Amino acid sequence: MEAYTDFANVYDVFMDNTPYGKWGSFLTDRLKKAGIEDGILLDLGCGTGNMTELLSKEGYDMIGVDCSGEMLNVAMEKRERSGRQILYLQQDMRAFELYGTVRAVICICDSLNYLLEEKEIEDTFRLVNNYLDPGGLFLFDFNTVYKYETVIGDATIAENRDNCSFIWENFYEEEEQINEYDLTIFVQEEGELFRKFTETHYQRGYTLEQMKRLVEAGGLVFEEALDADTLQAVTDTSERIYCIAREQGKLQAFRMED
């Protein structure tokens, strides 16, 4: 899963069109509809902390977990500027540990697609279920097989910014549903001097049926799925899907003890 090393320092530059505000509004709306208006939330795969900062601004006590120290360094620089009380932990989502439970867990921006084996997804979901309050909410997204296979698979994307540019080459392996993308990045350092570096990332596409099965295998209760672009019902051409699940097990255990 090692990725986002040198790229971390320019990640936000190239993600400037990402609709974090729209995503944050959706998450906040769903949290409040579930009666979660405050308390501790976990942002799993938090990256540079964009969503963590947004949810902190909404009044939640945020914990951000990511396996990339470089991405977390950027997140902590944002925390220093904003002055928000956010706890960041460098941990692998497949084996993360918290000191207690949280009211909700979010995992967006296709973080789960970096898990290339179903067992890794299931293990992560089991941990989420373990660290959620009784009846707590889990909101996550994922890129679909359709997106990798049809939209970005084998495509090459290039973009320029004022002080940097990148070439993003995709190579999709249909049998394993894995998309390899090779990033070549040029960053201006001094005068007309540019530094070149490369990174290779791997993501796996999943279907909604797979995710439903893995949610249940992880001990959670699957509640709802929506097309992330339209916020309507999922279709065969949905590229990113929001899923909502709930913790189960703790309430039943408490009732049995009573």
Describe it:
The chain has 258 residues and is an alpha/beta fold. The chain is globular. The strands form two sheets. A seven-stranded mixed β-sheet has the order 3-2-1-4-5-11-10, sandwiched between helices. Strands 6-7-8-9 form a four-stranded antiparallel β-sheet, with helices on one face. The chain folds into two domains: 191 residues, Vaccinia Virus protein VP39 (Rossmann fold), CATH 3.40.50.150; 58 residues, N-terminal domain of TfIIb, CATH 2.20.25.110. The protein is built from eight helices and eleven strands.
Which helices and strands, and how do they pair?
Elements: H1 11-14, H2 20-33, E1 40-44, H3 50-57, E2 61-66, H4 69-82, E3 87-90, E4 102-107, H5 118-131, E5 132-143, H6 145-152, E6 156-160, E7 164-173, E8 178-190, E9 193-204, H7 208-217, E10 221-227, E11 240-246, H8 250-257
Helix pairs in contact: 2-3, 5-7
Output the CATH topology of the largest domain. Rossmann fold
Q: Nearest-angstrom radius of gyration?
A: 19 Å
CATH fourth-tier homologous superfamily of the largest domain: Vaccinia Virus protein VP39
Task: Give the topology string: H per helix, E per strand.
Answer: HHEHEHEEHEHEEEEHEEH
Name the overall outline: globular
| Fraction of residues in β-strands | 25-35%
What number of structural domains do the residues give? 2
Q: Please name the CATH architecture of the largest domain.
A: 3-Layer(aba) Sandwich
Quick one: CATH class of the largest domain? Alpha Beta
> How many beta-strand segments?
11
Mean of pLDDT: 91
Strand order of the largest sheet: 3-2-1-4-5-11-10
Main sheet attributes: strand count, strand direction, barrel closure = 7 strands, mixed
**Low-confidence residue ranges:** 253-258
